[in-house]
Write a structure and sequence with these properties.
The chain is an alpha+beta fold. Among the domains are: 178 residues, BirA Bifunctional Protein, domain 2; 140 residues, no CATH class. The chain has a five-stranded antiparallel sheet, with helices on both faces. Strands 6-7 form a two-stranded antiparallel ribbon.
């Protein structure tokens, strides 16, 4: 059924890392979500849209608000074309096409049961560069600019208006309401929000377990004692059951019938989801076990490679150290010998009596030549050492490269085969969900038709008021028809054999019936 959900957030240069706005555009238009995309002033191609956004970010001021992003839940009662028209009308109503915008509708695959739209608004007039929507302004500044004071409330009201208008045009009686349940006067407990990470863990990994945590104030919260072994999903199921139990005791017959319908359909939904969640968790465990096995093999191979390298490197390191010591000793001896020759009594006497300075210059030149020669020898030894280490690494890598390549190929093939098998399993699960959804919608249409028929018959005048004496058999049949009361309708709805007569095929069978 249609629900109200409209969330507004923003991305700014000071509040988010560089490139976040462009990354958000790539995310909402990714191929895996099979989105329905429309845009005004923004390229439709995901890569070009991200590039455009990055260019806008570089040209914005240091504390600029780059984009406003909205996420709205689209009524499931609408067709894909009606959903696209609804979001388009909503965005154009907000912007008047005066600022660049883009929306992407996710309604396929995992989002088939949760159709929603991601909307991105770049609040800058392309002609003037000025803000138009001013969603970040205060209520007073917006009022001075001739806008609705509260931006968030205005957006929420406009989405409610357009969604209800679309439902009315499509011929549905369902409506959405942005107010809280308490403000609507509905005695129903609200459910708890489950984030995407927790939902992924619950559906794909394992059943979530509560842990004792310490909050920012240093207070220790014993969540296991609070949750009593229940997850948020379990708690939401309890809340839904409690709300349906209250509705089933309503004095209104139609409310009771709808509550019984939702209880029965919810039971079937939970039964199917429990089975599919178990299969999904099993697939996750299989993939993780396979990856762990290959990680163990890779670690073993790396360990062998490291051990061989270290053993050969130890021998080579000692050989190089011997060469370095020999070179150091030889160069020290040569420096000592040159110094001894130049500091002898005869050399000092020659420098003293050589008034031209040639002897001193020859001594200095000899020392310079020796220093350059020693430096060249050290550089040559360093180059030889680098070449030796490079040859060692290349040799060890060359010996282990075939084994690593074979292991990587085995991993790729094994993961590819497993993922193909898992994709087939996910396709079967999607087929089961679609079959279950079709069954639910069929039952819902049948319920709506029966309620409509019951209301129509209840509004007809009594046959006895307009019947003549020669139409008594007809009167009897009419009374029998108008006796189709809400109690009988409720008994038909609550009887599973009556409701599912002629549908012997299980919801878990993905094959379509003829």
């Amino acid at each position: 059924m249609a629900i109200y959900s409209c969330n507004l957030a923003s991305v700014g240069r000071t509040t988010h890392a560089a490139g976040t706005a462009g990354a958000h555009l790539r995310y909402i238009t990714r191929d895996g979500a099979q989105p329905t995309v429309e845009a005004h002033g923004i390229p439709l191609d995901p890569a070009q849209a991200a590039t455009w956004m990055d260019r806008e970010e570089r040209g914005a001021r240091s504390n600029a608000r780059l984009i406003d992003k909205l996420r709205v839940a689209i009524p499931r009662e609408l067709s894909p074309e009606e959903r696209q028209a609804l979001v388009r009308d909503f965005v154009r109503d907000l912007t008047g096409d005066r600022v660049p915008w883009m929306f992407a509708i996710h309604q396929s695959g995992e989002d088939a049961h949760n159709p929603h739209a991601h909307i991105v608004l770049r609040d800058r007039d392309p002609q003037t560069g000025k803000r138009v929507l001013r969603l970040s302004d205060s209520a007073r500044d917006r009022e001075k600019a001739g806008l609705v004071p509260k931006a968030v409330e205005w957006i929420r009201e406009r989405w409610e208006h357009h969604a209800n208008l679309a439902l009315e045009r499509a011929g549905h009686d369902t409506r959405i309401d942005r107010r809280s349940l308490e403000a609507q006067g509905i005695e129903r407990a609200p459910t708890i929000h489950i984030g995407p990470r927790a939902q992924h863990v619950e559906e794909h990994v394992h059943r979530a377990e509560s842990k004792t945590r310490t909050n920012a104030l240093g207070r220790e919260i014993d969540y296991p004692a609070i949750d009593k072994g229940r997850t948020r999903k379990d708690r939401n199921a309890e809340i839904v059951d409690l709300n349906l139990e209250r509705a089933s005791r309503s004095p209104d017959a139609e409310t009771r019938l709808r509550a019984l319908f939702e209880r029965e359909q919810g039971r079937l939904d939970r039964q199917l989801e429990s089975e599919l969640t178990g299969l999904t968790r099993k697939r996750t465990q299989e993939e993780r076990a396979l990856k762990k096995d290959f990680r163990t093999q890779e670690a073993s191979l790396k360990s062998e490679r490291r051990d061989e390298y270290n053993s050969v490197a130890g021998v080579q390191r000692e050989a190089l150290r011997g060469k370095v010591r020999a070179l150091r000793d030889r160069q020290r001896d040569e420096r000592t010998a040159l110094k001894g020759r130049q500091s002898s009594l005869w050399s000092r006497f020659r420098r003293a009596v050589d008034w031209t300075g040639n002897t001193r210059r020859r001594h200095i030149e000899a020392r310079r030549v020796q220093v350059a020669a020693h430096k060249g020898e050290r550089h040559a030894l360093a180059a030889e050492s680098r070449a030796a280490w490079r040859a060692l690494r290349d040799g060890v890598a060359g010996r282990f490269a075939p084994c690593e390549h074979d292991l990587a190929e085995q991993k790729r093939l094994a993961l590819s085969a497993m993922r193909d098998m898992h994709r087939r399993g996910e396709a079967q699960a999607d087929a089961k969900r679609q079959l279950r959804e079709r069954a639910r919608e069929e039952e819902r249409r049948r319920l709506e038709e029966e309620i409509r028929l019951a209301k129509t018959l209840a509004q007809r005048p009594s046959p006895a008021q307009n019947a003549s004496s020669d139409t008594k058999p007809v009167i009897g049949r009419e009374r029998q028809r108008t006796a189709f009361s809400a109690v009988e309708l409720q008994s038909q709805i609550s009887d599973p054999t009556t409701r599912r007569q002629g549908r012997a095929q299980s919801y878990n069978d993905p094959r379509p019936t003829r």
